[in-house]
C-alpha cells in the first residue's frame, strides 16, 4: 500500500472518520555543504521522493492526537503540554514542537487529529525528523488557514527542533523539505535565506546519484553534533567574525587559532563553503560529471578535518570511488548515515554491489541502497 493510503487508513482506524486532507513533506540528501548551515554558510541539498505523509482533520478544541504507523501508538497532548518545551518527548515531540513554535509566535493553531506514515528511512541521516516537522507544519497551516509565507516556514520548523526537542540543528533540512523543487537542487544561503533552484537532472546526463544507507548505528551523534557547533562558534568569536562564513583569509585565520583541532574545524567549514559555490557554478554550466572531485574532497574534509565519519562510511566512499564513481561523500550530520556517489546510471547496481561486497568482507551489516532523483517539497497531496 502507498504511504498516502497508509496514512489515510491509519487515520480512519484511529479516529473512526475520514481525514480532511493529506499533506506530504520529503526527506533530503545533501549534495554538498555539510555543517555549513549553522555557520551562516551555503548548502545544496535536494528533496527525496521518500516522504512523510500526514492525514489530518481539525477538531474544535486546542488538543492534538497523533497516530504514528512506525511507533504504532497514538499520543495526545493539550495546550499546556504544547506550550512547555520538552514536555512531549520521543517522536511526538517533533509534532508538539511545531504546535508550540506556531502558538508562541501568535498563530491560532487549530486543534487536530493527525495520522503519520512515512517511507523516509529513520535514523539514516535523511532528515526524517525535518520531514515530519515540515509535513505537520504544512498541514496545520492549511487547516487553520494561517497566513504563513513559505519563506518563513523553515525557520519555524527549525525552531521546533532547536527549542522544543532540544537538537541544535541548522536550517538546511527544514529548508530542503519545504522549499525544494522536483528536478532541482536547492542552493541556500543560510545567512540571507536567499534560494536558487539549480537544475539537477542527473538522468539527462546519463548519471545517477547512488545513495547507500550504511546502516552504521549513529554513535553519540547528538553530543558530537553539538560539540562541533560549539567549536565553530568559539572559533568565530576568537577570530572576531560573526560566523565562520565571514572568514576570507583562511591561512591568516588559521594562524590566529590556538590549537590544531580548532584549526581543522575551521578549515573544513571555510573550504566546504567554497566547494558548494564551485559545485553550483559547475551545475549552472551543465558540467555535472565535473562535480565529482568536489564531492570527494568534501568527504576527505569531513573525515580528516571535521572528524565526523565512521569506518562504514569511509569504506562505502572509497569502494564507490574504486568501482568508478565520479565522486562520493557522506551526506548529512555524520557519525553514520548515508553516503552518496555520482555514477554513470548504467553502473549504479555494479557500484552498489561493490560496496555490499566490501561490507561483507569487513563483517559490516549489509548496506541498503537506492538511486535518488530530486523530488518535490512539502505540499498538500489530497
Ligand atoms: C544535520 C542538521 F540537522 C543540519 O542542520 C546540518 O547541520 C547537517 O546535519 C550537517 O550539514 O542534518
Structure description:
- The protein is globular.
- The model has no long low-confidence stretch (mean pLDDT 97).
- It has 12 helices and 13 strands.
- The chain is α+β, with helices and mostly antiparallel strands and 382 residues long.
- Strands 5-4-6-3-1-13 form a 6-stranded mixed sheet. It has a 4-stranded antiparallel sheet with strand order 10-11-9-12.
- 52% of the residues are buried.
- Helices cover 41% and strands 22% of the residues.
- Bound molecules: 2-deoxy-2-fluoro-alpha-D-galactopyranose (GAF).
- Residues 30, 34-35, 37-38, 169-170, 172-173, 332-333 line the site of 2-deoxy-2-fluoro-alpha-D-galactopyranose.
